User: Fold these one by one.
Assistant:
Number 1:
Amino acid sequence: MSSTSASSGSSGLVLHHLELSRSNRILFLLEELQVPYEIKHYKRDPVTRLAGDDLKQVHPLGRSPVLTDGALTIIETNAIIAHLLTHYYDAARVALGPGLGEKMQASVDVGGWIQFSEASIMLHAIPLFYALKSGACTQDGSAGIERASARGIKADLAYVEETLQQNNGQLVKGHGFTAADCAMLYSVDMLAHILATRTPEWRQNLGLEVGPATLAWMSQCKQRAAFQAAVRKEGHEGQDWLSSFFARPAAARKSVFRPCIDLHEGVVKQIVGGTLSDTNSTLRTNFVATHSPSHFASLYRDHKLTGGHVIKLGPRNDEAATSALSAWPQGLHVGGGITGENAQEWLDKGAEKVIVTSWLFPSCEFSLSRLEELSQRVGRERLVVDVSCRKRGDRWVVAMNRWQDMTDMEVNKASLDLLAAHCSEFLIHAADVEGLCQGIDQDLVQKLGEWVTIPTTYAGGARHMGDLQLVDRLSKGKVDLTFGSALDIFGGQGVTLDELVKWNHAATK
Ligand SMILES: N[C@@H](CCC(=O)N[C@@H](CS)C(=O)NCC(=O)O)C(=O)O
């Protein structure tokens, strides 16, 4: 089924646009060029996800994009881009950097990146995409097709990241935004979506991550009015433009249980989050362990409960944290008092990742430069940001210093996207309900499911297995859950470790 809509004026240009396809690039470019055009929409078959026969009436290949310009019919994305830049780019009217075909570096770079988006990135990404769709991908990335694709993708991503870092965030040196960015955004975003369907272990084994400069560049491109107009014209306003294309694998993920070891005065405890302060007089403690921190670390290791966190609540916890990390090297994240100075030290002590909060907020104000510095120092992959928060009205505000002080950062899509450019995971304590065993903050979990683009663990208020099912449903499998005081190994009566191990096993099969 196809339908037509037109922008004002007439130029004779008609874009034959298949939903959720490469044709997005042309839509984006047409919006940037500000030329009138007509758009003819084509739907994918709901089962095969291929184009229908209606596209074959425009061109026998039946693929998108196709651009008709009066009597001319143009196929192939890059030929269409070249046609538009050659005949419809008026540099006196819109600023899109150099055109094609000039004998100067920036012009050949524009052409080079346009080709790179298809002939390098898509060339390497498509086999992986097909492997994903056909079920040929493995848990650990060991299939031949995965390794062969990854080799090319890794080099492509590294080259993009290096270029952006060297050119102050610009693909084409000296030019803020060019047609090359329109072409490249789709390819890199497609890759990012493919990678997001895989586990951290898979990505780590294949060395595939989208770098911080690349993530920041993507976010800048998506803020452009032309991009937003293109997404609106495609009918995906307010949504990520590729997420519905990847909806099935994403929906297949299930939330899992992530363990924790909370340390207070060197002992494993369960504490009511909102009562932590410098004085111990107001502290409400649910549980004090007789077992050592390393006992809990070994328990998690033996049950393969990955992605757990060791949190140092206040001073005099370093020795206890070190012993937990030694019991399971590279198996746990550590947080509490992490700074630019000591982060590497904790990684050297065996932490898989370090978790940072308060240090990012000097005088309770968020410091992007501190985050960038830390991320560069230890690597984005090894950094978790703790965005623990307290509810203020209908908003959530990041809290620090054992959740006693409110910062200037609200937890929302914009702040999480900003942070996600520099870290690989979020840990989110809902401090108001932490330790109370009175149920999770459902609104927050649902919002997190909509907002987050990187692995996220929520902690606070979980009572029993039903809460894990609830988190799975509300976040559509995107947010994981920690149990503290309700868990049998911490003296709780709501849920057993055994039940959670079984759930995780079934969820990740
Ligand atoms: N090399 C072509 C590829 C075109 C292509 O395969 N388009 C896909 C959409 S991304 C398509 O139309 N697929 C539907 C189908 O093959 O039925 C180009 O760059 O335009």
Number 2:
Amino acid sequence: MSPQEVLAALNELLEAERAGAWVARQSASEAGDEAMKALLQDIQHDEVRWCGMLMRAVRTLEGEPSSAVGDFRRKALAIADLHERLVFLNKGQAWVVRRLERLIPEVGHAEVKAELEAMLAAHRHNIARAEAF
Ligand SMILES: [Fe+2]
């Protein structure tokens, strides 16, 4: 990957995480079940954290962070049933895992790479948690 392709991949992930944060927040506010609400709030918290990390990573690599929200938000919020939406959210998280697995070997900057590895581990953990739920 060229440096421009790495930046484009980071911005694509940023837009996806921003969409995920919106979806988790909206879904948590709709959830009647306390365990589901807590799970969605934890996911939202994580998504916001990774948005911040990705914006810093783009700046570190001398790019401009995207301010767009991924189309995932519209698609996910169109699903009325919260359990079905959670399944869709988990598919989105799995997409993020695949993107990170491909991107991480291409990143030379040690700090950015370590942050992306932490994001990968957290996503794997959240996927397992949501599946168990
Ligand atoms: Fe995510």
